[in-house]
Every structure is written in structure tokens, then in C-alpha cells.
Amino acid sequence: MKFLHTGDLHIGKTVNEFSLIEDQRYFLKQIAALAAAEKVDAVVIAGDVYDRSIPSAEAVTVLDEFLSELIALRVPVLMISGNHDSPERVGFADAILEKQGLYIASTPEKGAKKVTLSDAYGTVHFLLMPYVKPAVMEARNNQEAVEKMLQQFQEPDLSKERNVLVTHYFVTNAGLPPEVSDSETTVNVGGLDNVEAETFRGFDYVALGHIHKPQQIGDRPVYYSGTPIKYSFSEVNQEKGINLITLGEKGCCTVERREIKPLHDMRKITGHLEELIKPEIVSLAEQEDYIQATLLNEEELIDPIGTLRSVYPNTMQLILKKNEIAGTSIDVGNIQRSKSMLELYKDFYEIVREEELKDERLEVIVQTIRETEGGENV
User: Fold this and answer.
1) Helix (H, G, I), strand (E, B) or coil at 170
2) What is the torsional sign of CA 26, 27, 31, 34?
3) At 294, which helix (H) or strand (E)?
4) Which residues is 140 bridged to in the sheet?
5) Cα separation of 293 and 312, whole Å?
6) pLDDT tens, 272-296?
7) The pTM is what?
């Protein structure tokens, strides 16, 4: 059995005031084409389908186009909601859509969902377990919430039958966290968000969403597919794509990466303004890329962002090196945020109160961030 594993589509996402909706339509078409070319038995989407709980009309249209194309190919789609999604919106009309081959698990009230597909070796059970806040499961933390949700499934025979788990959490390996990117703002206090990979022992493959860098967790078949395209400049060196999984008989699983080509790549350039805009320099790479430019000029510059955009129209960020060296930084064209929301709150509190934010006050701030930004980790 062959299936594609992707996640963290974040449809509708805006980066530095640039809408990425056309970039997302572009990579979704590639995924559908890959599903057809590889003749896969399913496409798995491991959460964060949208970038926000109330997606724009355009974002909904783009997802509809993608799912309609897969359904027309008669490829089953197995999808869960993530911490950025509204479970009720993602799961709308899920019972009706199952007749078309679209299986959605979004809310714990409807129960964790099991989808069974078959191949020459027998059945494969896909267990769809969406992101759910611990409080909803009456749990103290994510680890306990996940354990409770796993108990909702009819106990699968992990020793004989083939089972694939699809879920969306911050999964660690003996406490070692996954590698994260700047496009993820992590609020992680005392390990409350962690779910140990050991929890998933026995599964033939675990399709994870939530972390944007593709990676395997430990030596088990537990994988983050990562985002299909780059969503921050901390990801410029990452090779984005999608996982292609082939399940043979019990215990036989191969994982391959398939490249996704972006409509616009993200890259960093550094140098003096007058050098960076020379035709011979500009021609070295794609002019339409999303650009973070670090300027080395010491003198004052007149409208450097406008000058850069005259040759690199998708310049997203401008960093003046002299300001960094002087100990102050300038946010020009929405320079990337280097601190998490929690760190900004703590800094503000210490300035105003001249004391450290801790204990009950810290817990209140953490809970507020979780509620406003859409989950344990956003």
C-alpha cells in the first residue's frame, strides 16, 4: 500500500504581509499530480489545514479545488484538524463527505476515527486522531490527553495487523524535542506540551503534523512531513516536500521524500545595496523569490526597501547590519520576530514591574496566549 503524508498546509497564510495563497494553490496541484503519478491508495493530511480558525473565502476555495481533484482521481483523503484549525469548520459535513472518499477527524465529541483500507497483504487501519486541548479530554497535559484518545479506538492488534496513526502534536524522543523553525511560536512550560514517541510504539507508521521541518523522531517510524513550502527565513536551507510511504507485509515500511517545487522560493542575500542590484548579481538566481536582504552599507540610505523591490519585487525583509552591530535593530518591511509572544510579555512585565514574571501570573499569561493564538504550540 502506498500513501502520501503531508500536513501543515496553512492555507490562507500571510508572511510579512505577502499572501501565499497562489503559492499554496501551486503546491497543492503538485501533490494531486504526484498522487496520480504514484497511483497512491490514499493522501494523509496531518492537521493545520488552514492557517487560522476562521479561514478566508479564498482559502476555503483553494482547499475545495484540491480535495475535489483528489476525489475525482478516486484517491481517498484522510484528514485531521490541527491546533490552527476550527474543528467544527474543518469537520463540516464529514459524514456526507465520507461517501466521496474524504474522511475527516476533527472533534473528540464524534470519537476518534478509524478508516480501513485493503491491499494484497490484507487490511491497513488508519487511526485519525485530531489535535485536542487537554482540558477537553479532562487531562492534565498533552501526554495524558493522547493516551485517553488512543483508548477511544477499538484496541488494534499492533502485533499482527498493520496500523497507521495520524495525529498533530509536539512529539519528543526521550525528552529530546524536534527541531523547530521561526514560523512556529512555541509556548512550552514544564514539558506540558510534550508527547513521547514511545506512546506510539507498535504502529507501522505515525504521520505527524505540527512541526514545520521534515524529520524523523527517534528511530521509530514516527515522522513529521513538514510544510510543503517555506514559511519563514529560518527554513531557507530546508528541503521541502512530502513523504511517500510504502507498506508491504507487517513490519515492512519504506519512507521516501518527494520534492515540492515552490512558486517562489525563499532566500537570503547579503551585501551593499549598490552591489545587490547589479544585473549580474540579480541574474544569479530567480528575481521573483521571496527575499530577506541584509545591507552592509554604513551610510544613510534613501528608501532602500523601494530600491530593492525595483529589482527584487518580492523583498519581504530588510535588515540593516549597522543597526544590529550598534545593538539596535530596525523593523523595515516586517523584519522577522525573534522573540516568542511569551518572551515579549515577560520582557514587558519586567520593565513595568521591575520584577520577574513567574508562578501564578506566568500561568495566566501562558493560558491567555494559548487561547488567543490557537493552541499549545502555534
Assistant:
1) strand
2) positive
3) strand 290-295
4) none
5) 10
6) 999 999 999 999 999 999 999 999 9
7) 0.84
